[in-house]
Each structure stands twice: as structure tokens, then as C-alpha cells.
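Retro notes
What went well: the complex prediction finally ran end to end.
Inputs used:
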Amino acid sequence: MRLHVVDHPLVAHKLTTLRDERTDSPTFRRLADELVTLLAYEATRDVRTEQVDIRTPVAATTGVRLSHPRPLVVPILRAGLGMLDGMVRLLPTAEVGFLGMVRDEQTLEARTYATRMPEDLSGRQVYVVDPMLATGGTLIAAIRLLIERGADDVTALCLLAAPEGVKAMERELSGQPVTVVTGAVDERLNENGFIVPGLGDAGDRLYGTVS
Ligand SMILES: O=P(O)(O)OC[C@H]1O[C@H](OP(=O)(O)OP(=O)(O)O)[C@H](O)[C@@H]1O
Ligand SMILES: O=c1cc[nH]c(=O)[nH]1
Ligand SMILES: [Mg+2]
């Protein structure tokens, strides 16, 4: 597994407002969307392309286009939905699959409650989006499923990560074709499995609910 922390002043600026407890849901949603665009720019650096011949008004030339099979974008419900639009804006040809997963707030174990994805992902590049990588349980389970279905290149985009989650992913997904792209690696997890300083519960902040 490879880790890429996007070290950019615009990412740091937007993340700071995102973290601020005074930021309301509409602003949180807008910032999450803007951050995805910045992270996706890095995360899609190795997206597969193929050559294409075109004519400009001036001359014939050769360019590239996103290749087939199409990349698959998988948001992990609920909070990952806040990153979907930004991702498909950058990858217009992408197909979208869905994974519904929720973490038991006592045991911190991830449970899958919905799966809507192609059965066969052989040879596919997959971009998983979920704002928070905390213990890593959710993303590890999600990525295992994608690899079991044949995905040969998986990139996870997270707004924030905890060092504990990054270590768990490195341990559990070692040797696998997996990249994690994140806006920051925070200090630690607290006793409730929340990222510190973090931003609280991403799903609640996106959708205005209170856990
Ligand atoms: O790394 P982990 O310890 O597994 O935790 C991270 C997961 O927790 C959050 O989802 P949550 O379970 O709160 O579901 P929600 O998106 O429906 O709020 C978050 O969006 C991740 O999916
Ligand atoms: O800090 C955290 C940890 C898990 N899920 C969240 O939404 N926030
Ligand atoms: Mg939540």
C-alpha cells in the first residue's frame, strides 16, 4: 500500500474551515466537494488513458482519452456520498458503484448493509471515496471486497486519516495494489475511535444529523 498526503496550502486552508465546529452543513458540503477536486487531481495521476486521433480546426493531432474499461468510483455511504459529485466531475466517463457500510460505535467494527457494484471488476481501476480513515476497518473491508472481485488498482481518497488507520491498512493490505490519498494524517484516535483533532462525525456534519 502507498500513502500520499496532499501537502498544499489550499487543501490545508479548506481543511481548517471544514474542521471548525462553527462550520454549518451547507458550507461543509461545499468544502468537502472542493477538497475532493484537489485530492482527485493527485489521486488520478495514474488513471489509464489511450491514444486518440483528432482534428483541431488547424491540424490533425494525437491526444489521449480515459481508456476502457472505465474507471469505477465507489462512495462508501453515507459520508462518502459527499465526495461523489466532485469525483465524477473529474472522471466524466466513470461508472459508479455503491457500498453502504456503518461502523458499530461500541465495537468499532464495520458492517456492510448495501452492495451495488459490478460482480466482475477484473482489470478495473477503482476510486473509493470516504472522508474519514479512522481505525481503517471500513476501508480495509471495502478494498478487500473490490480486490476479491478482481480490481487490480484501488485508490482510496480520504479527507482525513488517523495514523492508527494508516498502519492497519499497511498491515492488512501489504503487497496489494492500493494507494491512499489524504488531505492530512492527524495526531491519533481517541477512546471512542474518533480522529483527533479531526472534524467530528463526517456523516452528521454533511447531513445535519446528530448521533
Ligand atoms: O476507519 P473506521 O474506524 O472504520 O471509521 C471510518 C468510517 O466511519 C464513518 O462512517 P460511519 O460508520 O459513521 O457511517 P456514516 O457515513 O453513515 O455516518 C466514516 O465515513 C467511515 O466510513
Ligand atoms: O473521527 C471520525 C471517525 C470515524 N468517523 C467519523 O465520521 N469521524
Ligand atoms: Mg457517521
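What we learned: DSSP finds six helices and 14 strands in the chain.
What to try next: split runs per interface for comparison.
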